[in-house]
Model the fold of this input.
Amino acid sequence: MLKRTPMGITRNGELCRSVDILQKGDRVLLRIPEKGGCSLEPNTHISVPVVYEDEDIIVYNKPPGMPVHQSPGHYGDCLANVFAAGFPDTAFRAVNRLDKDTSGLCIAAKSRIGANIPRENISKVYYAVCCGEITAPVRIDEPIGREDGSALRRIVRSDGKRAVTNVYPISGNGRYTLLKIILETGRTHQIRVHLSHRGFPLAGDSLYGGEMSDIGRQALHCGETNIIHPVSGREICLSAPFPEDMAKIANNL
Done:
């Protein structure tokens, strides 16, 4: 059976991102639908809570374990497939993106206006559980770049891009600390890298040295977002509760 080439950007037949580094000899293909609308396979078997919706945007409370876009091994169970089931005539355009194992508020556009909300008109608050005890607010201003020899891991390095993370402890028990986090920049894995670099990796984060006994993925959740609506100009303030795995830890801190 022939393997169907997915829509979007592929490298050597596999989906990739515009920021991925190419190697000599890679074959890059951009495949777009001939007509407007959503080219993704709809998935009607997955339900994702909708926190807000209007004519221009929809905001989901994305569960952990679900990619936003299609990726190897996830061609039919990502947030884009859920969107396609609800809006088959609309192309999927994520306004913000969360890592597969990060849960929380994720905005998708239903119109061109919604897809072009200025970045400064969206603010987000993350919540995380880190290993160890943080007792006072800290501002981490350390550049982040790709680790040599790794396609996935990022590290603090002098030749990286500037990254700023503001961390506010909420509660802790010596073993873990529940944190409120506000970003000034948006680098890949920024929260995970900065906290690991300071000796406080996220609980469940196997990639950056987190304790795995109480949660099986990084304990990171986008819990609040404020949006200046691109049409009405009004401020929309949204929140989403922790998923069960993270709530189980947070409620004991």
